[in-house]
Amino acid sequence: MTRFPEELLPLHELTEQDRLLVRAAQDVIQRNYDEENSNHTVGAAVRCKSGKVYVGVNVYSLHGACAEQIAIGTAITNGEREFEAIVAVRGRQGEEILPPCGNCRQILHDYMPECEVIVSVKGTPKKIAAKDLLPFSYTVEG
Ligand SMILES: [Zn+2]
Q1: How far is the CA of 100 from the centre of ligand 1 (A)?
Q2: What 8-state DSSP symbol labels residue 59?
Q3: Which residues form the CMP/dCMP-type deaminase domain (predicted)?
Q4: Can you tell me the distance from the alpha carbon of 25 to that of 130, in angstroms, rounded to the nearest whole number?
Q5: Is residue 68 annotated as part of the catalytic site, yes or no?
């Protein structure tokens, strides 16, 4: 598989607020990690323009929901419409920063193209705008 060279991507450094966001995602999966059935293994946290942070864990099923979707849905349920940054982590301690899946990338692109997504680049957390994670993306307008 040919990989896009990271140095060509518009990556940004994390702020202290972003590090707190990663910690919020780690905290929610540490509290909810499902040792028995592995139904909940990913935690996510989204920071809104209001400054509030909403968290979620994945809900495993054949067509289950990713942790990002639960966090975004909770934020929207609470009236939030503008998003600054999002991160998902996997593992008992949330030790692995997880890039969004294809479906989540489409959701991020549709709902919050300017929102920054925290990803791991060669083991170092960086941020990239959601719109830059899905080149040649599908849009309804065409
Ligand atoms: Zn996903």
Answers
A1: 5
A2: B
A3: 16-141
A4: 18
A5: yes
Interval between CA 124 and ligand 1 midpoint (Å): 21
Domain parsing of the chain, residue ranges: 9-133
Distance 73 CA to ligand 1 centre (A): 13
The catalytic residue among 6, 7, 68, 95 is 68
pLDDT in tens, the chain (142 residues): 566 677 788 999 999 999 999 999 999 999 999 999 999 999 999 999 999 999 999 999 988 999 999 999 999 999 999 999 999 999 999 999 999 999 999 999 998 999 999 999 999 999 999 999 998 888 877 5
> Structure tokens of 28?
């929610």
Tell me how crowded residue 68 is: count the other CB atoms within 10 A of its CB: 28
CATH architecture of residue range(s) 9-133: 3-Layer(aba) Sandwich (3.40)
Alpha-carbon torsion angle 26, 30, 32, 36, nearest 10:
130
Ligand 1 mean position, distance from CA 60 (Å): 11
DSSP state for residue 133 in the 8-state scheme? G
